[in-house]
Structures are given as structure tokens and as C-alpha cells.
Amino acid sequence: MTLGRNGWVQQAEIVAAGVGPPRNSLVQPIEIVAAGSGPPRSEFVQLVEIVGATGSSGTGAQGVTGLQGVTGLQGPTGLQGVTGLQGPTGLQGPTGLQGPTGALGATGVSGATGIQGATGVQGVTGLQGATGPQGATGIRGVTGIGGVTGIQGATGAGLAVDILTWNYTGILAISSGIDNYAVAPRFGTIIDVIMSVVTAGTATTIVDVNIGTGTLSSTPYTVTFGTIYTTQNNRPKIGFATADEPVAVEAIAPDVTAFKKGDVFSVDVDQAGLSPASGLRVEVVVQYTGT
């Protein structure tokens, strides 16, 4: 409802005069007439006062706002159509042929090489200084006396090589059975005899190697020795030497070489070189052949 100068005016749908009842049965039709023009021309409308927008001095007449019609129901949305199948991809066209490579251009002419400059003059080499005199060699010290070699232990089974050793550490003199006796622990063969001296004398030194037959036992037994050099000229020997140096020789092979378990070896000095011959050493190399 709207309040006018003549009281409350009912809100209604505006229809043309004489058209008939309104489209909505809930509202009444009205006819808009000027004030003082007389009654309306239709029996379906009521006279209403036209109220200006700005009060009593309003310019135009304010129309009555009609009622808002009812909004109709929303219709259902249609179904989504089926998407069509994807068509196959077409074949790849062939690649075109490679065009020929253009010809290689000619290489330009190489410029001439410049003239090689002359090599400078080689300077003069200085004089070589004189070599100083050679210093005198010191006096050679005296060689110490060789220690006594212990008795050689028994060698194990097999074709083992052993060395039987005798030493005479002092100034040489004729002697029988020097240093020690060596007993053969197994059967074997003499394969070499080596003789050496620390200082050679002014005459020849000669030694002899002897062997005595025996049988190993826990009781003493007597041994009779005999030389292994039945040719006496083959005995080991070292002649006169002027140099003050150790001298060694390998003797000629002996006449007797085989020995058995229990045999005893010894070494004699048959001839001693004159003073200062010293430091005698005799080595008999044997190979065991059985037990």
C-alpha cells in the first residue's frame, strides 16, 4: 500500500480502462484518471489519487508499481549427445630426396715462404781446467782372524748337499788333523774340494783330505785314516802370491769319492807356505745319496 493525500492507496496492476479484469486474480485493476474528471469508465476499477513524486508540488504523476508476477518453473535440461569416434590419422608422406652437395671451391695459391735468416756466429768455448792430482790410496787394514766353524749337523733325507769345513786361523805350519773331525751321518759322494788362505806365503801350501772307515754306534770305535788323493800330485795346493789378498782354488777331483754312514773325515797340512801365510780354510762339498 502507498500513502497519498487522500488516504492509503492499494497497490494494483495497471490495465487499460475497459480491457477487463487483470491477469492475476489476486490484484484489482485500476484506471488512472485525473482528479476531478469524474468517475472511472469501468465498473472494474476504483478511482485513485495520482500522487506526485515530490509531494504537493510534484510535476508528473507517480505511477503505481504493479505486483511482481510469479516466475514459472525451470524446464529440464536436455541430455548431452554422444561424442563421435575419432577418425584415424593419415599416413606420413615420404621425405623428399636430398639435393646434391655443391662442388668444393678451389684452394687459393699458397704464398711464398720468406727467406731463412742467417745463423749467428758460435761463440768460442772456454779452455778446460786442469784435472787435480789423484789422492794417495790409504793403507789396507789387516784382515781379522776367521772364527772356528762349528760341527755340521746331520742333513735330512733326500739328495741334500752339505759342506764339511776345516779352519786353521793362525800362521800355517805342518799339522795333522787340524780343527776337528767330521763324521758322515749318511751315505754319500764327494763332489768338490775348495781351499783358501787369507794371506798367501812365499812358498806353496799343500793340504790332504783323509777318510776313515767306521760304523756309528754308542760306543767308541777306532778309525784308520787314508787319503782320498791316491794321486798325491792332485792334493789341494796354493802357490806363492805377491798380492796381499785372500786366495782360493778348486782342487782337482779326488780319487776316492764314495763314503758311508759312520765314516770320519779329517784334514792335514802336508806343506806350509813360509811366513806370513795364514788363515787356511778347507771345504769338502758332499751329496748324500741314502740313509
Provide structural commentary.
It is elongated, with a radius of gyration of 75 Å. Strand 1 and strand 2 form a beta hairpin. The protein is mostly beta strands and 291 residues long. Strands 5, 7, 11, 12 and 14 form a five-stranded antiparallel β-sheet that branches. Strands 6, 8, 9, 10 and 13 form a five-stranded antiparallel β-sheet that branches. Strands 1-2 form a two-stranded antiparallel ribbon. Among the domains are: 1-66, no CATH class; 161-290, Jelly Rolls (Sandwich), CATH 2.60.120. It has no helices and 14 strands.
Give a brief outline of the structure:
The chain is mainly β and about 290 residues long. About 0% of the residues lie in helices and about 25% in strands.
- Strand count, sense and closure of the main sheet? 5 strands, antiparallel
Query: Into which percentage range does the β-strand content fall?
Result: 25-35%
Radius of gyration: 75 Å
Proportion of helical residues: under 10%
- CATH second-level architecture of the domain at 161-290: Sandwich
Shape, principal axes of CA atoms: elongated
- Distance linking N and C termini: 152 Å
Helix and strand run: EEEEEEEEEEEEEE
- CATH fold group of the domain at 161-290: Jelly Rolls
Number of strands: 14
- Find the structural class using helix and strand composition: mainly beta
CATH class of the domain at 161-290: Mainly Beta
Uncertain runs: 1-15, 43-65, 141-151
Mean pLDDT: 73
Tally of DSSP helical segments: 0
